[in-house]
């Protein structure tokens, strides 16, 4: 069982193969067990302040009381930057089916503090949510590993990684009820920059390829997870935005390695 100072690469997946996975979150297949991606969190909002039930985000469990997500998942508007207060945000873990309140793996946590990076860009769309109590780690709920140090072992172009979330299943919706997964391929920053001229340096990108592989609305804040040769899973990217289910499109992610110092010791 994981503790507050360790991550478990997911040794539960003994016969993992990228090629056994459906190729996209949008239009892809449901996962069968939440323990496949036990670090996935669901971020929703108090309906008294945010009455949009179809608006939610993903999150990434990185510690007993820490959930990593996107900055834009902790604000009400990118134009005004009006923030959600601690009591406005709800963190749920162990969720396979987000419409079911009776899953034995599910647990809901309140928020103690929200930390947001002060300078925002496509590579700095990062927030840390601190919980009021510790998460109970089990085989179904546990943290993913962070990179060992800044700029260490970045996935190179062509590397296959996993994106997961409860977001749209096609370019026009609706969102998935059951957690979905997709295999995506890392592309170079230069290639991505040719498509998104606004992305900042160090932003990570994946190509959607001919099958439209990629994340969609409501997947924001979720993990781009890559598997090291030793079988350990590491979160290298935080879902930001891009082309939803577009053939030969791209998605971009905040780079965890380049923001690692702040992620480990967040402040406002």
From TrEMBL:
<dbReference type="InterPro" id="IPR001314">
    <property type="entry name" value="Peptidase_S1A"/>
</dbReference>
<protein>
    <recommendedName>
        <fullName>Peptidase S1 domain-containing protein</fullName>
    </recommendedName>
</protein>
<comment type="similarity">
    <text>Belongs to the peptidase S1 family. CLIP subfamily.</text>
</comment>
<dbReference type="GO" id="GO:0004252">
    <property type="term" value="F:serine-type endopeptidase activity"/>
</dbReference>
<dbReference type="Pfam" id="PF00089">
    <property type="entry name" value="Trypsin"/>
</dbReference>
<dbReference type="InterPro" id="IPR043504">
    <property type="entry name" value="Peptidase_S1_PA_chymotrypsin"/>
</dbReference>
<feature type="domain" description="Peptidase S1">
    <location>
        <begin position="25"/>
        <end position="268"/>
    </location>
</feature>
<dbReference type="InterPro" id="IPR009003">
    <property type="entry name" value="Peptidase_S1_PA"/>
</dbReference>
<keyword id="KW-1015">Disulfide bond</keyword>
<dbReference type="InterPro" id="IPR051487">
    <property type="entry name" value="Ser/Thr_Proteases_Immune/Dev"/>
</dbReference>
<dbReference type="GO" id="GO:0006508">
    <property type="term" value="P:proteolysis"/>
</dbReference>
<dbReference type="InterPro" id="IPR001254">
    <property type="entry name" value="Trypsin_dom"/>
</dbReference>
